[in-house]
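Example (one chain per record):
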Amino acid sequence: MLGCSYGKLFKTTVAGGSYQEGLSINIQGVPPGYLITEEEIYRELMLRKPGQGELTSPRREADVPIIYSGVNAADTMPGFSNEGLTNGTPLVILIPNVDRHFEHIEQYRSTNRTPRPGHASYASYKKYGENDDSIGAGFFSGRYTSTIVAAGVVAKKILGDHGIIVTAYVKEAAGISMPNMDIEKIRRAGEKYREARKEIDPIYREIFKNALFKKGMRFFEKTSILSELEKKIPAIPRPSYDENEIKERYEIHPELFCPHVETADAMTAEIMKIAREGDSSGGIIEVVITGVPPGVGEPVFRKLDGELAGLMNIGAVKAVEIGSGIQAATMKGSESNDQIRAEQDNIIFNSNNAGGITGGLSTGQDIIARVAVKPTPTIAKDQKTIDKISLENKTLSAVTRRDPTIVARIWPVIEAYTSMVILNSYMHHMAYQAMKKK
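Predicted structure:
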């Protein structure tokens, strides 16, 4: 499998599978001197993990990460305070699987001969043959997206030091769209959403609020904690909370990060209505990037919008548009062009139909992309398929764990992947600018 790396200067390589021992992330290009903790990685992982309520699969993965290498084990010299800081070597993060019990494996075994329509299970079998990792969809499961989220935590932290902020949210779900909102208001809602999820997440309380992971703790000490957690998983209660209290206190919906609460309520109701019919639904994630200076991007084959089109690398994403996107095809030039003026040495654009990118280079405006997410392929309705061994026609009835929609969990993945793209391109830009003849 040769397609598991992204980036040149900020390079991320991922591995693992849904029912393997776990997943791993190897990041090269992390500058030295950054403090990155398992807790802050987990705070983002808990936004996309399953088992969080009606809108997600009931799988109870803890998604507790372990930083394995790339940070100093202790202060390196007398008088230095650099224990736990990145040291410039590859940063490796592990995410062990802890909810992969035999009964779930057997459910997949019983249906693996009949590929799920809309899923990769037929194509992956044709590519990898009888050794295809098809239990839980292996590397084609949404489970692997935890690796992207972990890498995104690192990318966002570095970008933040340079004044660049990446924000994703649910713009549309099950055919219901939210009204336009100011990006700063959306970001404040995102902060509240994260705080609310911390409060109601049982794994956060179990591991991090109780400070079971301590500074200087060895790898085997951390794995022993996760070994004990694995035994407790079936007994640990699912998130329990008063929805109205969360809405009143944090002004967000506790399960779906659409920053417009009334729309989030309507989205959730429609998602669950479709799920009760045995079906699934999709939606649109919008991502906004602020603080990117003009000129970021590398034509011809590394244009910034072309790199962002790589969001299609995330499973379930079926389309990516920048700025006005597909609507540009029906606009006139006078409507599409973003006219420019100068005011007191400041450059002002009258509109942003380009989505902050022209010629593959950033313009200094907000970069805006929208990502179309398809419905979950696994549904409760009977579907026509085949036996991939005998090639007989078959009918598939889903018996495995599944999400009513992927939208509720994919937005942090979109945010993380976008951060990786922007950081990699920004590092190229900074290197190029530094090499200009003085």
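Caption: The mean pLDDT is 91.
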